Amino acid sequence: MFPKARNIERSFQYIRFFTLFIILVCFLICTYCLYQSFVLASSVQDRIYVLSGGKVMEAVASGKQDNIPVEARDHIRMFHTYFFSLDPDEKVILSNITKALYLADGSAKQEYTNLKEKGYYNSVIAGNISQSIEIDSVSLDVQQYPYYFKCFATQLITRSTSVVTRSLVTDGYFRNTSRSDNNPHGFLIERWTILENRDVNISNR
User: Would you say the pTM of this structure is higher than 0.90?
Assistant: First the structure.
């Protein structure tokens, strides 16, 4: 009688152990499946399919950190282009300066105020002067935050009788900020300074 009872008890122990083992295996399988599903969902979210000319092409999304040098250079080019592109029209000047000031902090606003107080923009309008800029190069240091930049550019100032070519060198820092219609790259230029702005050539028209 007692040996049978012991056998039954041992059988129950085996069944309980086997049941616990099955539950553990099922739990591990479910956990693995959930993890793989999460990995798959994340990889799918990083892919965009574009239909062009009847063909489906895959575009892979990347984080902002991966594109900092490319986006920063374009941001700096945009700022300098808006700030230094002038025509003898008050509305054009104000429009360009407004766009530029969305991309930088108070250091750019201070430079604009200084030029305005000196009558620079009034002389542009009165003298029918057009000013354009070509960005030669932008050097970046993205190893430390906020990031440092140095911009080398050439200004062309077209007057009624001459064209003045000027060398322009500026530097400053830039930090991350929110993207918007006015600031599509999501950077803000800080502590912007003009290091050099000198004539290199004057040609008669």
Answer: no
